[in-house]
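Make up an example, fold above all:
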Amino acid sequence: MAVVRAARAAEAEALTGLVMRSKAHWGYDAGFLSACAEELRIRADDVTARRIVVAENGQGDVLGLASLEGTGPLASLGLLFVEPSAIGQGVGRLLYRDVLRRAVELGVRRLVIDSDPHAAGFYRAMGAVAAETAPGGEDGRAGGSGDGSGSGDGDPSASASALVRFEAAPVPLAAWARAWTGGARAVHVGNVAEFNAQFADASLDREQTAAHHYACLAAFYSPYPAALVLPRPVPKGWTELVCRRLGWTGVEVYDGLVEQGPGLSGAVRDRPALAALLTGAGLPLVPWGRTRPFGLLTGRPWRDGELRYESKSAAHGLFGRILADGGHPGIALPAQWRAATRRAAVRLLAARAKAGESTVLKSEHGVGGSGTTVITPGQVRAAGGARAVLRRLPRGPLLVEEYVHGPEEDDGPRDLTYDGFVDEAGRVHDVGGAVMDVADGCYRGATVGPGAVPETAEKPLTAFGAAVGRELAASGYRGWFDVDFVVDAAGRLAPTETNLRLTGPSVAFMVAARLDALRGAGHLVRIADRVELGARLPEAQLDELCATLTRGCAELGAVFVPAIPTAAFEPAPWLGVLVAARSREVLDAAEALVRAEALAVGAEFDAEFGAEFGAEFGAEFGAPAQSPASKRWDWLRVAK
């Protein structure tokens, strides 16, 4: 593995040779290279003055170099060249990210890159934004920054006067992200099922199948993990790709720890050597959510009632107490009634339907919209009455809540959320607001980043979310939380629940913070919980699909990160994904590409599988040469 170190003055001549070999890699003729030689020459006193660093392998071979020139707030990447034999090994990426890191330390907020046209693809892939075409050098034929990792498109004899100017906005890791883990890498514990199980939510399946898939989001519980602890085995190719996309190194993965049931923390405690390794490293352990078993694993005392505001009725009461003090004119609380019995719920629902009012029925606990149902008067009539409607819902206590009607016209997002956390000292940290994708009461994804939340909603959302955080801190809660809202007909925000755990939007915030620090500021990040696959793919084909999506999104100027891979092996397969871009248009295009390719690749695999398998076994079992994805696995069960 290559490492970066400061260049030495005595290396100046050797580094000049590396630069010229890298430049010649693009096929420039001898005359052109001769004209560039003086400008590209590195002198002994340049090494310090231009802040030159080199990438060096374990044998002491110099593989590339980069310079950071100027002072804050404006500086330039003057040189970035890679030894031709090392092209494609990630050396350019390593050097570029080091330049951004050092730029942040120098107070640089605008980094200018005048790139050789052949390296333009590299800088686009690294997140730099194209600006105006840069001027040529002294004789109109300057070389510019060129690491040899470019796309290789264009004529090698093209004039280097057509340098391509890029800019990046170096920023440090967000302050909240540093505070979240105390500036350290963390151990991520994917105890999603364990967290859910403590509430006995009747709307969730007993095996917590979905929760074990969502545990894969443990990869993103902080911007830079040291280790992942997961209940189910995960594909090696997935972890490798995620590490490449987010610039992680040295991430340990401990998976396949739970064969049955939700008890991940207990499974770790049952392995004393693993428990000692994870808890004795001096790193913070970050769970999906607090549980008593997690407290036993980490030695953190469990506080009775610290999760009481996961209850939707308790959260509603908290919202009412905050609003009773005034100061939040942009917030309107929907009415809520707790039905002590199913008979009482029937009466409430029937009365509201008779009055022409829609109603939200909620379980006391539920995740991602589970246990939440919107009932219209028409649905009550069609079902034959309120009693018939309630028979179809899970057993358990019900909350009856006023349905909040949104604006008549599609004027901005309908579902918003505020994320924050309470640190161990009881301080509340604002993380930000997100727009959620919700359909029929079920959460499907979220978008975070600059401009995601409308300006008119941002101030009341943040003020009320922070007020909830202060109340949670006073109650003894420590950890991540969010407050979900819907927008009413007057444009006010109606708070609907709190979640005292990490969530999909929190994952998007973590990835946005990492990409901003890695590639420059300004990333919008979207998490899409379920991207349907046309067929269940073997692991090798899943790796191919992810590689295809990575390339396709990069061509659009976006970043693709697979978030939940294990559901790709389910009979009804799907993926959870993250996409990032610096504009809403590119973000939407990237999501559309991912969804289309996921279905198309599945269909192609199904056709290939059907032709090959059917030709061999079709006659014996009377199966067609090709079978639809939805039927293929039934056919296999018969064949076996």
Remarks:
- The chain is about 40% helix and 20% strand.
